[in-house]
Amino acid sequence: MNVTQDLSIIQLVLEASLVVKLVMGLLTVVSLMSWYWIFRKWFAIREARARTERFERDFWSGGDLNTLYQSAVNDRHHTGALERIFEAGYREFTKLRGQKTLDPGTVIDGVRRAMRATYQRETDDLEAHLAFLASVGSVSPYVGLFGTVWGIMHSFRGLASMSTATLAAVAPGIAEALVATAIGLFAAIPAVVAYNRFAHDVDRVAVRFESFMEEFSNILQRQLR
Prior knowledge:
Blueprint: H1 9-14, H2 18-60, H3 65-74, H4 81-97, H5 104-127, H6 130-158, H7 167-223
Helix pairs in contact: 2-6, 2-7, 3-4, 4-5, 4-7, 5-7, 6-7
């Protein structure tokens, strides 16, 4: 590499050592995957929040529970997470209420267990792939640093064959190695920001689910009196 020419990013990547190129390629693929899941989770959480708000409006508007249940059963493809929790609880309620040998406490416990199981599935679905974003955010800088260390070692080994060691001779190799760290940070920073944001949003939605479950259980308990 001519040390007098401009050290453009593309030139640095093309003229990097094989190991550094592999590191850069891996980080680029991981970055693209993280951006894919960032957009997917953003749309999924936004949709879950919108459907939760819509169902809460319908539920607290004073509508008939049977009507809400039938609507959820007949339109499964457009139901949200909170509707599915309601559906599971109300289905269990109607099934257990018909058993005369069960006391109200047992019926409500069964309803809560049914809603809790659906709640767990729904929150697991919302949290899916957040662990991947967390891993990208925590590991990518170290992978980039490995590429940088390897590239710097490769550059200094090349000085052994030179009669005079100058900064101009080693600078291109160090610069191309530092690109690996830059790519690692480029992959890590958006993943960390997205993970923190999505984890907070999922927690808020989960709190709304839990509040609804408690309030709905109280409503059903009053109907058993």
